[in-house]
């Protein structure tokens, strides 16, 4: 559950992903509607496999069948967000989102149900909408449960005062967590300065005071107004029976009456900006940020396609103009661009991260100059083509995955109508350089920008704000294209998968495992791991290895960094190639027709990196910037200190845990010769695994893998680094993290266990009930749900498949003022578990949820490919998974309690906390301390 926070500038906006997305795909005719519709259900539109129906009470239904998925996603979107909040109500939409998880008459414990059904759920709030979604193993029982859950909490959620009293501090902690990151805060300040009157200038998560003071009666009134069928859109995507599902929806949602009230309108129109605006933020931190925000049209406006292309041309890495002007000249370490695509006129945000030893004034001058020049220096045909291909690739990636598409439809529905997702794609396809130049000249004016400075002028210009288009007129007769090709009905059970696997060794040492199957859009996923070096040969070479891995995608002897990016977009491939001290990995998602050239591209990246000095310096600066940014982060401080204590390897050892200061010194010292030498000495295919899952011909893939990697031998032999158990003394450490609103608790104890131990299944399920699931574990129920002490809390357990080495740990994010309460509650809950164990009901629900969660993972091709690759590394088949799941299913409460008592001693658990402890001293007596 979350409000959309302003993210790290290295992460793309979700709305940009929606305006762009997946790779190559084929299409068939739109899926036909059910031949006989249930009484009270009417069909209203059908575009490219998505069909809309409507109930008499106004509920809109979108069905998106995808039989190739072994999962189903239910997503309900309410057209209400922070844009609809009144005075004193900031954050109400997001707070209500949290409260809807507190239960309803037929579903009193929502987190428990979400966990027991093995679902992947969440709820999110944004400017124009709120949504709730859950993805689960495809079955009639699971779908009926999810639909009944959403129908009941649509109008019957408790919204009780007692729940509000605990949850408001959880939401406040989420607010405080965002306040830890100055970059996020700066982006919000820029928006609030750019918008004088419109609610887009207010953060979705709201103000601390409104969150704390909102009366439950106001929250209930807000809920009764907006959470109604005539203001909701229900999406069902994945594997399901359409006719049966429509019948169930009519039965569950149809009886909800259409409300007599008329939905309130939001009528505020942001006036044209009349001059540059400035904002300065001064907070503790390590990395400087400069940005510029410009008003642009609504996301449904025809100009927005050109705005998206313009944003890419300016801010893409590595092709963007800002990257070349700022990053390649080392004036900045990274750049970003966010075109906020919203219901009403939105904003284009551009900016850069600048290291503390660089001039922020210089970066600001270059940022504004390059942005301004976009209005006088027309984009080239190559720039527009590159942007278009990348955005369309991302669009296709989303639509090829019905789960992602089901969730993304929330954004487009909130802009006015779900069909805009296709209309925007069509508009992207026809954007020309003249269109991009025109929008740059229209919107990138000095008088329309909000930056960190103020300059008066005698000749002001005005940029008129475009009216929000009539969306219904734009989509009224829109038919779209043929729907995407469907995949097969796939069984994700371990035995069913194992029966279809084809294994083939590839000389000199690759293990190839293949799972051919029909997939939606003829999609293929590849997971490749190369194993590198041994304990002796890797001494003192970790940083060179990491930089070598970071440079792989930045150029080969045959292709520049830009050409690699362009080729990946042309092939509509999602390609990632990474490397570290002990392994190099390839993650590839593409289509059947592009599999061979995509694998050739990956092999070129792995085998023939160019390792240019200029790219090493760029990577060095980016890495140092990230390290500087992490120095003051409580989470980094806590977990680094804890892991240093638990795993005291020598400094030269590849397993040594470095802190940011140590790593910065190492990064500065690495030479290009070190990077090249590591690749030359260690890279090769003498040891490794490659898994291929999807639509392909096995014989062709085997021959191709043999051709690409068969002659590639590693100079240094591979021998796995052992991590045998070592008992460590307990540590209880308090680390200062000044000027941070939230603190972090990290705990752990090492356990002498391998994953073939008889107690391993019991420990896995015990940990799942202790700190796993969705807000339904013992720790979450106590620290978040009941006491409101922590926004994020959980536990972890692992046991090594090779060595007698395991670990049980926990974590929590909380307000510094709640330090003593949180530690006490955590220790009490662990002690209670070890004293009395779990109830039979808890265990039954946990088994169901854990097992279904594993099925969901195996039904996701990317995750399945990674799992198959790991099983080859462990020299295991999926029979191991089947045995583990059988053993977990057979567990009794006594077995779980005995195992946890045998391996977890509370007195031996170490924990480290990091936070601003001065806030604890400054807390006023009698005032309740801040939330989780």
Spatial order of strands in the largest sheet: 1-7-8-6-9-5-4-3
Contiguous runs where pLDDT drops below 50 for at least 5 residues: 4-34, 453-457, 923-932
What class, by secondary structure content?
alpha+beta
* Rg, Cα atoms, Å: 27 Å
What does this structure look like?
The structure is a single chain. By secondary structure, the chain is an alpha+beta fold. It folds into four domains: 35-253, Cytochrome Bc1 Complex, Chain A, domain 1, CATH 3.30.830; 277-456, Cytochrome Bc1 Complex, Chain A, domain 1 (2-Layer Sandwich), CATH 3.30.830.10; 494-709, 2-Layer Sandwich (Cytochrome Bc1 Complex, Chain A, domain 1); 732-922, Cytochrome Bc1 Complex, Chain A, domain 1 (2-Layer Sandwich). Strand 7 (120-125) and strand 8 form a beta hairpin. Helix 3 packs across helix 30, helix 21 runs parallel beside helix 26 (698-709) and helix 22 runs antiparallel to helix 24 (660-669). The longest helix has 20 residues, at 381-400. It starts with a strand and ends in a 10-residue tail after the last helix. Residues 4-34, 453-457 and 923-932 have low confidence and may be disordered.
């Amino acid at each position: 559950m979350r409000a959309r926070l302003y993210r790290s500038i290295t992460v793309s906006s979700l709305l940009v992903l929606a305006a762009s997305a997946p790779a190559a795909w084929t299409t068939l005719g739109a899926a036909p509607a059910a031949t006989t519709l249930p009484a009270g259900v009417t069909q209203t539109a059908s575009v490219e496999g998505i069909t809309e129906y409507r109930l008499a009470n106004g509920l809109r239904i979108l069905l998106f069948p995808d039989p190739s998925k072994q999962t189903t996603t239910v997503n309900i979107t309410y057209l209400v967000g922070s844009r609809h909040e009144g005075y004193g109500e900031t954050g109400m939409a997001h707070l209500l989102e949290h409260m809807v998880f507190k239960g309803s008459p037929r579903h009193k414990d929502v987190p428990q149900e979400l966990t027991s059904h093995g679902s992947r759920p969440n709820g999110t709030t944004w400017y124009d909408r709120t949504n709730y979604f859950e993805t689960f193993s495809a079955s009639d029982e699971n779908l009926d449960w999810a639909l009944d859950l959403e129908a009941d909490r649509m109008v019957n959620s408790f919204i009780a005062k007692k729940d509000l009293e605990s949850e408001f501090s959880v939401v406040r902690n989420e607010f405080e967590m965002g306040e830890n990151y100055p970059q996020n805060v700066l982006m919000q300040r820029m928006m609030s300065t750019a918008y004088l009157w419109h609610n887009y200038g207010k953060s979705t998560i709201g103000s601390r005071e409104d969150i704390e003071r909102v009366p439950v009666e106001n929250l209930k009134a807000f809920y009764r107004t907006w959470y109604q069928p005539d203001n909701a859109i229900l999406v069902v995507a994945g594997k399901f029976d359409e006719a049966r599902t429509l019948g169930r929806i009519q039965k569950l949602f149809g009886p909800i009456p259409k409300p007599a009230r008329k939905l309130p309108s939001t009528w505020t129109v942001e006036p044209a900006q009349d001059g540059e605006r400035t904002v300065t933020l001064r907070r503790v931190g390590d990395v400087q940020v400069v940005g510029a925000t410009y008003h642009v049209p609504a996301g449904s406006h025809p100009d927005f396609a050109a705005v998206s292309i313009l944003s890419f041309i300016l801010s893409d890495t590595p092709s963007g103009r800002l990257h070349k002007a700022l990053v390649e000249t080392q004036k900045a370490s990274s750049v970003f661009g966010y075109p906020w695509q919203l219901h009403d006129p939105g904003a284009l945000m551009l900016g850069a991260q600048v290291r503390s030893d660089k001039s922020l004034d210089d970066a600001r001058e270059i940022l504004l100059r390059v942005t301004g020049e976009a209005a006088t220096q027309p984009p080239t045909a190559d720039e527009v083509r590159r942007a278009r291909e990348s955005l369309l690739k991302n669009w296709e990636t989303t639509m090829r995955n019905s789960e992602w598409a089901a969730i993304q439809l929330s954004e487009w529905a909130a802009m006015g109508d779900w069909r805009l997702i296709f209309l925007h794609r069509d508009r992207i396809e026809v954007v020309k350089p003249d269109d991009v130049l025109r929008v740059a000249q229209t919107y990138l004016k000095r008088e329309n920008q909000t930056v960190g400075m103020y300059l008066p002028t005698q000749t002001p210009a005005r940029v008129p704000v475009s009216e929000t288009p009539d969306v219904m007129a734009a989509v009224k007769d829109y038919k779209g294209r043929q729907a995407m090709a469907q995949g097969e009905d796939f069984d994700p059970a371990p035995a069913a998968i194992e029966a279809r696997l084809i294994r083939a060794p590839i000389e000199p040492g690759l293990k190839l495992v293949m799972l051919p199957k029909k997939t939606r859009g003829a999609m293929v996923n590849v997971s490749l791991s190369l194993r590198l070096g041994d304990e002796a040969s890797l001494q003192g070479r970790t940083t060179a290895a990491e930089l070598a891995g970071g440079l792989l995608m930045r150029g080969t002897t045959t292709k520049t960094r830009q050409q690699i990016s362009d080729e990946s977009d042309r092939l509509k491939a999602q390609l990632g190639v990474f490397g570290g001290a002990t392994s190099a990995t390839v993650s590839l998602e593409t289509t059947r027709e592009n599999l061979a050239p995509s694998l050739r591209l990956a092999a070129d990246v792995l085998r023939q990196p160019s390792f240019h000095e200029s790219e090493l310096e760029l990577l060095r600066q980016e890495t140092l910037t990230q390290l500087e940014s992490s120095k003051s982060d409580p989470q980094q401080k806590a977990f680094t200190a804890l892991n240093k204590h638990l795993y005291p390897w020598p400094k030269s050892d590849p397993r040594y845990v470095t802190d940011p200061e140590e790593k910065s010194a190492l990064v500065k010292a690495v030479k290009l010769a070190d990077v090249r030498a590591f690749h030359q000495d260690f890279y090769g295919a003498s040891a490794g695994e490659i898994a291929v899952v999807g639509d392909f011909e096995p014989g062709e893939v085997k021959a191709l893998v043999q051709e690409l990697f068969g002659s590639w031998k590693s100079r240094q032999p591979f021998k796995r680094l052992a991590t045998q158990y070592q008992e460590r003394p307990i540590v209880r450490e308090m680390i200062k993290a000044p000027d941070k609103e939230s603190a972090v608790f990290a705990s752990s104890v090492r356990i002498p266990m391998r994953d073939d131990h008889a107690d391993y299944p019991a420990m896995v399920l015990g940990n799942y009930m202790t700190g796993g699931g969705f807000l339904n574990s013992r720790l979450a129920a106590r620290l978040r749900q009941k006491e409101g002490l922590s926004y994020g809390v959980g536990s972890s357990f692992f046991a090594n498949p090779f060595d007698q080495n395991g670990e049980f740990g926990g974590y929590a994010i909380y307000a510094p003022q709640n330090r003593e309460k949180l530690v006490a509650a955590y220790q009490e809950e662990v002690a209670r578990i070890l004293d009395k164990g779990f109830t039979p009901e808890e265990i039954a629900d946990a088994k169901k949820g854990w097992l279904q969660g594993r099925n969901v993972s195996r039904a996701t091709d990317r995750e399945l490919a990674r799992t198959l690759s790991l099983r080859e590394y462990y020299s295991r088949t999926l029979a191991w998974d089947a045995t583990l799941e059988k053993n977990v299913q057979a567990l009794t409460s006594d077995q779980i309690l005995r195992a946890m008592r045998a391996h977890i001693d509370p007195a031996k658990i170490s924990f480290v906390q990091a936070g601003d402890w001065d806030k604890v001293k400054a807390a006023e007596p009698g005032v309740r301390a801040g939330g989780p």
